[in-house]
Amino acid sequence: MMGRWRKQEGHKQVGILLFLLLSAVLFVGPAATQVVGDHGGQPSDYPTDPIKAELQAEIESGSNLTPRGRKALFRARTHQDAGRFTEAVEILEKWQQGNPEREHHLLRFQQGMAYLGMQNPERALEVLQTAVKKEPRFARAWLRLGETAYGLESFDLAAEAFNQGYELSPTPRPEFLYYGCVAALSGGNSGRALDGLEHLLTLHRQNAPLDWYRALVTAATDAEQPDRAAPHLERARNDHAGDPEVWELAYRFSAGRGDYEAAAIYLTITGYLRELSRQERTRLGDLYAVINVPLQAARSYAAALDPEKFTDGNSRATEYERLAGAWLAAHRHEEARETLHRALAETETRRLWSLLGDLDHMSEDYAGALKAYGRGCELDPAFARGWLMMGYCCQELDRPDEARKYLNKAKSFPEQAASANILLAD
After folding, report:
1. Closest C-alpha to 391, from 403, 376, 399
2. Of 188, 209, 228, which marks where a domain is finished?
3. Is the pTM for the entire model greater than 0.85?
4. The domain containing residue 409 runs over which residues?
C-alpha cells in the first residue's frame, strides 16, 4: 500500500542550494577581487583570528612583487573593475609570459578572476590551481577554486578547496565547511560528507539551518549509516520544535528507515503546525494502516478526500478504496458503507464493488453482496474471487443452480479452484 517513497533531499537539490548560497558569498563580477573577504557585504557573526588575519593580509599585500609587477596588477584590476576582462587577462599574460620569475600568486589569482568574468571557468580553474600552488596559504584563492571546481563538477577538488579555504580563513564561516561537504556528497563521497556534516553540526548547532540537516540525512542514507543522523535530528526537533519543516524531515527520515510508527507521529505533528497536502494526508493514512491503527488511517484518508480542501480534479477511486478499507478494518461499517456509496456515485471500479460486497457479506445481506460482486465481475470478468463469492451468496440464498454456475466459473481460475470445489461438494 505504501510503495517506495522517493527521497526529495537528493544531491541535485543540495547542489542547487549550494549555488544559491555561493551567489551571496562568492559573487563573481567586476568587484570580485573583494568578495570572499567581505561575504557579500554582510557583517560577520563569527570571531576573527588575528594571527590568520595578519597572514592573509600579508599574502594579499603583494609586498614581494616588483614595482613593475605591482603596476601590471593595478592595471589589470582597473580593467577588471570596469568589466574589461579580456584586457585584464592580456595584461597579466603578457607580464608573466616566458618569465617564470614573474609568476606570482596574486597575479594568477587576478587572472583567474578575469577568466571567470569572461565566462571561461575551465581556464580559470587551471589558473586558480596555479595560484594556490604558488601560495598554499591563500584562503581566498582556495575558496574561489572550490566554487569554480564545483561548477565544473570537479567535486573532489571542490571539496578539498572549500575545506582548505575554511581552515585558512581568518573568519572561518561554517558555510564554507558546508560547501565542502556538499561537494563531497555530490561527488559520491558520502562518508567524507557525513564526517564533515557531523563535525559542522557539533560545532555550530545553534546556528544550523535546516539544509545542513537535510544534507546530513542524505549523506547518512547514502553511506548506509542512518543511525548517525538520528541524534542530530533529535537535537533539531528540540531546538526548532515549532518549525514544521523539521518534523517533515524527521518523518521522511523515519519512513526511509522503515520506522513507520515514528514517521506517522512526525507527519501528524507536521499537520499540527501547517496544513498537510492531499498527498501527505494519504501517506499519513498509509502509515497508520501499516502500523495497524485503522481508525486514524480512515480519518486521514477522509481528510484527503475533503472536496472543500482538495479539488485537483483527479480520479479519487483509489483514495475511496483506501478509506473504505480503513473503515472496515476499524469495524466502522456505517462509515464504510457511506464512503462506498459516495465513491460509486462518482465512479465504478471492481475494487469498490468488491468492498461493498464484503461489507454486505459481513452484514449477512447476501442479496446485496450478490449484486455487488456481480457488478464487479461485469466490470472485470477475470475477478476470480467475485465469481466464488457469488456462488457462496447463492448457496446462502438457497439458489443452488445459480450457485453451481458461479462456482464452476470460479473453478476455471487456479487461485480459486480449491475453494470452489469445497463449496461444490456441500
Report:
1. 403
2. 188
3. no
4. 348-426
